[in-house]
Amino acid sequence: MKQHVITVTLAMTLALPAAAEEQHGTLVIAGGALSSATMDVYETFVNSVDSDEVRIGIVPAATGSINKNFIQLQEIFSQLGVSKNHVVLLPLAVKDDKKTKDTDESTWVANGNDTQLANDVKKLNAIWFVGGDQTLITKVLLNKDGTDTEVLGSIREVFHNGGVIGGTSAGAAIMSETMIAGGNSTGALFEGFKQDYTSMDEQEYGPVVTRKGVNFFTYGTIDQHFDRKARLGRLIVSLLEQADSQPGYGVDEGTAMVVKNDIATVVGQGGVTVVDVSSAKHAHNQYPLKASNIRLSYLQPGDEYNLSSHVYKSRPKSYKTVGHEYFDVPSASVSGIMSSNRNLDEFIGFNLLDNKSATQAVSWALDGKNQGVRLTFSQDEKTQGYWSQDITADVYSFEHLKLSIEPISVQFND
To answer: Transmembrane helix as a keyword (predicted)?
Structure first.
């Protein structure tokens, strides 16, 4: 890890040199639930700053626990060599932090157009967005007509000058043009969309809610908490109703997708699911969803994905599985906690792409009444799986997996 020696405070920081031409920086898009076991995400964020003098601004707008999050991040970045004086809290918030008696942070809601704050932001070279409710971030950083506030304009300038923009959970959700604000996979697959959004609770149930994001990530739509919250269904539904057919990128918890010069890599404990609906067929606005020819890829740490050409490059010392399958077991269905290999990479790796007996793998979603959808994963000549080993752990990734979704009727008898 390179060391960052800080010798001046933020107020004394020299002006940034003018770039000869517009340059984009780095995005660190974290899927949430970062912990002491995933410090490599924060380390990557710090080390992506192309300067020995790292100056980080913390945007706390998504949360009401502002002071707690800020102190925690100051300590984390201090451990990584950044002076605490160079980790500053940006007064951008919607909710009051009840534990700070002398400040009402809810009065910061209009600070997106504070000219002095916008000028101060330009002195930074890294911005970190705290998790929580993504709609609160956009409430502060976007004007009512959807245009940039002054502060958001300054954050874009930091990025275009080679700075680093990072965020976790809600701070990841805002990164794309289309921001997924609420809903879960079951609600999306059976009901589609709804317009109203009243609280963070709606992130966990019901139809999909989308809003305008800030579009730092211009290659498609971001979703987060992707593995634990099983958000594949809601991302697919969100993508199918968009006109541009750009891919979706689902970032697992404890994981970050790092984007630099059109290349995406993965850092952390999980992976990134790439959802391609460019050739998918479906009935518009009809639910339960029926769709075919959806393509999925899954990236592990060490893999690379070109976001412009959509070319996947597997990690070193990984081996193709299709045509070299290790397992020979009956096809499996995954339906819940009584099933093995519930995570997507394990489900596809163990049950299908490294299994000579299987031509498909099936999973199910039920609405709790009499409806269900069957998700059928299959392979063709475009599909490939990759296996590697981390000490004794099997690690699977894949590209161009086919997925079809079909409504079914379900009857439960006592």
So the answer is: no
